[in-house]
């Protein structure tokens, strides 16, 4: 048995091509990029100043979106006030309005696809808001929170 093992070792040493490693090899490397969308509003708050009857109060800011999704959309909504600026439980007579450079829309329902686009960084759109008041609206400080929600398209 010892003789057979020594003979096999001798064959391997004498025949150089009998056992050899490959001169090259490959490995496949892969990775995933998770989809993301980043939605940012330039101003944390907007002031309409002192609102007066007959003149819509307006303000503007900028919405910036960065996303890896091939297509995406951003909706604008008011989840708590039903589309009205409120002072506690008291709502103004007219609905709050918003636009993205086009015609104003009431915010009573979500503004679906307020901003849409494709993958990229730093895409911007204007956010214009407007509130009209009537003589029947009580004095006070009114507010509304607008939420911008991004999703893959």
Q: Can you give a write-up of this model?
A:
- This protein has 153 residues and is mostly beta strands.
- It has a single domain, classed as Sandwich (Immunoglobulin-like), CATH 2.60.40.
- Helix content is 8%, strand content 41%.
- It is built from one helix and eight strands; from the N terminus they run αββββββββ.
- The strands form two sheets. Strands 1, 2, 5, 6, 7 and 8 form a six-stranded antiparallel beta sheet that branches. Strands 3-4 form a two-stranded antiparallel sheet.
- A hairpin with a 2-residue loop joins strand 3 and strand 4 (90-91).
- The longest helix is centred in the first third of the chain and has 13 residues, at 2-14.
- The radius of gyration is 33 Å and the shape is elongated.
- The N and C termini lie far apart (72 Å).
How is the secondary structure organized here?
Elements: H1 2-14, E1 37-41, E2 57-77, E3 86-87, E4 90-91, E5 97-99, E6 105-106, E7 111-131, E8 147-152
Antiparallel strand pairs: 1-2, 2-7, 2-8, 3-4, 5-6, 5-7
Structural class: mainly beta
Q: pLDDT average, as an integer?
A: 89
Annotated CATH architecture = Sandwich
Beta strands, count: 8
Round the Cα radius of gyration to an integer and report it: 33 Å
Number of structural domains: 1
Tell me the strand percentage band: 35-45%
Text of the CATH class: Mainly Beta
- Output the helix-strand order: HEEEEEEEE
Q: Which sheet architecture does the biggest sheet show?
A: 6 strands, antiparallel
Q: What's the CATH topology label?
A: Immunoglobulin-like
Helix content: under 10%
Distance between the termini: 72 Å
Question: Number of helix segments?
Answer: 1
Poorly predicted ranges: none
Quick one: overall form? elongated
